[in-house]
Amino acid sequence: MLIGKKHFLTVGAVAVALAIHAVPAVAAQQKSVAVTAIVEHPALDAVRDGVQDALKKAGYEPGKNLKWQYQSAQGNTGTAAQIARKFVGDRPDAIVAIATPSAQSVVAATKDVPVVYSAVTDPVAAQLVPSMEPSGTNVTGVSDLLALDKQVELIKKVVPNAKRVGMVYNPGEANSVVVVKRLQELLPKAGLTLVEAAAPRTVDVASAARSLIGKVDVIYTNTDNNVVSAYESLVKVGNDAKIPLVASDTDSVKRGAIAALGIDYHDLGVQTGKIVVRILKGEKPGAIASETSSNLRLFVNPGAATKQGVTLPDALVKSAAEIIK
């Protein structure tokens, strides 16, 4: 009896000792990633999911060895700043900031917590990094900058006789301002002019689109977060007024745009996630150059074309990576 009891205590003591020693090992493997987006819409949600998929593939799983947080600012820049301060206070191993307003809020809130931006059209103009080279700061990331000359080519293929291109955008969103300025330079070279309509809030998108009726031959939309969040209201105007819609966000084609030559935002998220993994494994964000995606895909929606008074060329439809039925 005594021997058995002594043996039991010894085994118990060993088990306790092992448990005590196991705690630091698990804690050492635990990493934390906080993700914030300015708003929830299909493109930005795809980025978030792509980041998580890349982390899982690298062996980082929520509930096991990864603390994962996600918060959307619901389109409010004030809320974005609050989320940024909260995440910085949590001291995660990396903060992923999706879209320009959220990235600007996070970068303004910290100079030492690693920040990886994603879906930012021009990170230099947004003052996130001094250049696309390694920043030497706590910031790196992936831009969704598109070659606008290819966007103009697509507009001309969809609406060959177009002369006036309308664009609804938020003048307070840095990435949209950059696109407007570049189109103002680029369109005249293609015999086109730009007609702008401001939508400072999501609720302004429909009225801004209606203001373009009779003034434009086609409406082009970039990845402006207000516009993408309220895309159905823009589509209604396009359908009712027979104004063709050409987008840069492929998800917008599923929602009623005629065509888009754009980035696969899930792929962009995976690309972003791979950078996060490098940081979790010890690389400094300031030593990692900012990246862009060259993986463009053409989506077309012949049904939307019919509703908006356009017949798509067969060659364009056949060249599409995806045809929305």
Short structural summary:
This protein is α/β, with parallel strands linked by helices.
How many DSSP E strands?
13
Query: What's the total helix number?
Result: 13
**Lateral strand order in the biggest sheet:** 7-6-8-9-10-12-13
How would you sum up the major sheet?
7 strands, mixed
How does the helix and strand content classify structurally? alpha/beta
The average pLDDT score comes to 91
> Termini, distance in Å?
78 Å
Spans of at least 5 consecutive residues whose pLDDT stays below 50 are: 1-28
Radius of gyration from the alpha-carbon trace, in angstroms: 24 Å
Topology pattern, helix = H, strand = E: HEHEHEHEEHEHEHEHHEHEHEEHHE
Q: Quote the beta fraction.
A: 15-25%
What fraction, in percent, of the residue positions are helical?
A: 40-55%
How would the global form be characterised? elongated
